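User: Please check token order:
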Amino acid sequence: MNPLLPLGILVLTLLYPGQSSGQQEPALQQARQLIEDLAAGHAQAAYERFDPSLQAALPQQRLAQAWESLEKSYGKFVRIATVEQKSAAAAIAQVVATCEFQHGRLEALVTIHDGRIAGLMFRPVAGPDTWTAPVYVRPETFREVAVTVVTDRWQLPGMLTLPAGPGPFPAVVLVHGSGPQDADETVGTAKPFKDLAWGLASRGIAVLRYVKRTRAYGAASAADPMRLTVQEETVDDAVSALRLLAGRREVDASRIFLLGHSLGATLAPRIARRSAGVRLAGLILLAGAVTPIERLALDQIRRLAAEGALPREQASAEVAATEQAVAQIESPDLKPDAQIRFLGALTPASYWLDLRGYDPAAELAQLKVPALLLQGTADRQVPASELALWTARLDGRSDVQARLLPGLNHFFATADPLTGSAPVHVDASVVEIIANWILKTNTGRQP
């Protein structure tokens, strides 16, 4: 992940606010004024809008340095193009402001609680004309149908990509990595889920992708935002998506697969175990981690600091803050109602307690489901060494295939989607490996 996005989250992106009070101001106005203050060099004014917990995590000097880093990477700030309120729950609001810089666009995700800024993250936005279909896609061989993934009161826009013909087809549900992802899992100039959907559909496989709940609902993603777990963030909706597929006449309900990327891959065994009523034909894990999230994040921060990717003072503060957060997360005295400032975002203890003791490799070993595990050697988010942690628990399983792919990064591409303007695509070899494995698993013969 780009170290020049210091206000963002490197591994985990949760935007849940702390407790504070103050004079109310319309959320859209609050977010707009925050960006304008930062752009004008008024870091103190911006800092004064933060709630106490965010002030502690992001002091004024670091806030100013962070904005300077953004402008070094994306050029001078030009204007705020759009400001939109995405969600509101009680005194909580999440606002997305699209900011134009000389060399690109960024979305500022601003979480507001009781009139104070409680969360802030910047992420790149790919322009509408930057993505083009990769060469392995054959658009004439498939069509797309808009669907809605429904879990209780949460309704998530989705897209079902169907091969030409009546079917029924083998089908795959795509499960996102960390953060409030769109249906394409857009990161900079990459849309890896769209690449996979179109690439696999070109080979006769139906694919369902959908907007992640934390993207669609923000702080209202759980009935109680302070009790959020991966169940609400990821698991429940993935199970709903599997059930949606199983009910489609174009889909062979005996040949449904689950493909998880990053956090989605880590949680795939848990999703599979909870997908009662859906017969899973196999799991596909892309860059899944066995090591706990907080430990991966700490390793990432330490590596960035050692490489000089962050200013020295900022690097030291980031490492210290992350070490403190990890100690809190791993403390045996952690209480469910606690909140932890982790990589700039306030996260509920419930999130970490739910993952405590979860061993995805051991969980996968207990499942009688074929699995394909893929990992890139150039992955800087989930190191290639994680693959060995999976296979150590799966040794001797003839229905499990694990492959280390030379030169591919966390997005299974050879280029970084956060630098440059050209579209970055999932490598063609990845689409071929996945398609061949699905078809072989389904038919018992090599396609």
Residues 75 and 415 are 21 Å apart (CA to CA). The chain has a mean pLDDT of 86. The first helix runs from residue 27 to 39.
